Amino acid sequence: xxxxxxxxxxxxxxxxxxxxxxxxxxxxxxxxxxxxxxxxxxxxxxxxxxxxxxxxxxxxxxxxxxxxxxxxxxxxxxxxxxxxxxxxxxxxxxxxxxxxxxxxxxxxxxxxxxxxxxxxxxxxxxxxxxxxxxxxxxxxxxxxxxxxxxxx
Amino acid sequence: xxxxxxxxxxxxxxxxxxxxxxxxxxxxxxxxxxxxxxxxxxxxxxxxxxxxxxxxxxxxxxxxxxxxxxxxxxxxxxxxxxxxxxxxxxxxxxxxxxxxxxxxxxxxxxxxxxxxxxxxxxxxxxxxxxxxxxxxxxxxxxxxxxxxxxxx
Amino acid sequence: xxxxxxxxxxxxxxxxxxxxxxxxxxxxxxxxxxxxxxxxxxxxxxxxxxxxxxxxxxxxxxxxxxxxxxxxxxxxxxxxxxxxxxxxxxxxxxxxxxxxxxxxxxxxxxxxxxxxxxxxxxxxxxxxxxxxxxxxxxxxxxxxxxxxxxxx
Amino acid sequence: xxxxxxxxxxxxxxxxxxxxxxxxxxxxxxxxxxxxxxxxxxxxxxxxxxxxxxxxxxxxxxxxxxxxxxxxxxxxxxxxxxxxxxxxxxxxxxxxxxxxxxxxxxxxxxxxxxxxxxxxxxxxxxxxxxxxxxxxxxxxxxxxxxxxxxxx
Lengths: 152, 152, 152, 152
Fold this sequence. Notes:
The structure is a homotetramer.
Chain A: E1 10-15, H1 31-46, E2 61-71, E3 80-90, E4 94-103, E5 109-120, H2 132-142
């Protein structure tokens, strides 16, 4: 994987905290998933889509159905990282995020992520279609770079 | 992804702990990576390859270069999980693990993982070739299911 | 602090997982709090008091108001630990847990914990009195070792 | 516990991240320990004492021997917190940190912490006396508020 940095319009910042360093002296490989999640939530909030973390969701829930991460170089304690985030594709009831994690100063690439998310009903049993307002907000923000198949 | 369960010969057990449950009431998506790692370390120990967690590695370090996870169904508090682990491929200085996470009783599939690992020198700068003893141990355990290209 | 081991009637087991090891090669100091919590939830379940982790609590919530931990010796990767747990005191709307964490085989003491818990209404704003059924269950299990002041 | 805010001269900032929210919708009680640790490391760095997180310590190690936390009000997702940190006492081979965690805007108190740290040799077996340079740096920064018993 080698994501094209020029496609990303949203970024957020994270500083590596001491308790995220593992016994190898670098950020633990699972923590990067958390960093990309920070970027996604910031992205959605920027679009006006609030993720009510800590509250009961009564209408639907968004779940992660797939994650891919490529680790380029390890992040270290105190490093200031930049998470670049974009939605690259929207389907009927799922969508795809891409992320790049890099050193905020040197832009050294730390990791890349592709994640797929599905919309489910509150019971988590059946999928819920994404509404047109969501498609429009993402299209308005991303422009032609987001792939949204026309309804058949 | 839909890994063939019959190919796996190693399993280990994990019980979901309360602090691994996130604000959605299910195991956080990054925690599954940790569970698969528990399986991999158990697998290596079973092969007689000790991972000196917490000690200084003077000869080489194993790093994760890629992770793929498919989430099938969420795991919940107190659930006893089984992690199935196998090495599916060995290259010159990297190898691939596959994992299946399932409910230990019902075998309901929770998640699947493919991870790629590289052997680096202690500085983390250059790759180190895997030795033949490692190849032989994995071959002896996995039989013909592990893909090991012949040296050219 | 030096808790009297003989006072404890409930124990549960935990094996240290690799991702709980920090950059010093030992279990991170915050993780022990999680281990003691595992013991407390097991204790309550053993008394027939289910903590609905991951579900919405509609009647009350239990919150931690104070934690004290003494660290005796570090726990290491793969070590099997035993958590001893008891309720030492019940007040009107709060109660106190004590915990001992030790190596399950050698009984080497790892850490001790005293935690105070309060019962709040679902909004988290005002305290809720503990009911007599709770007092009775704890008294029946702990016998005279639990301090329960008589109502005035 | 009710620490006197006026005694604190060092502060650092932390924003609550989504994956630190537990199933009750608030920051998990063990995470606050990590936040206070962020404050302590920042404090030491400000004094010119580098904590080589992720590196091998060859001369000594600092370990936590006791932690006390009082939880005042829960922190929530996205909240910007301020950690106030001071060293309140230095003994021969141990010292005491105090911390206050508060909302960075409203100064609503979230939690308080007292932690005791010991200096050990690299094996972790015997205590190492704190040197006078450390005492002097802390005295210069804290002034008369830090308690340093005269050598007998």
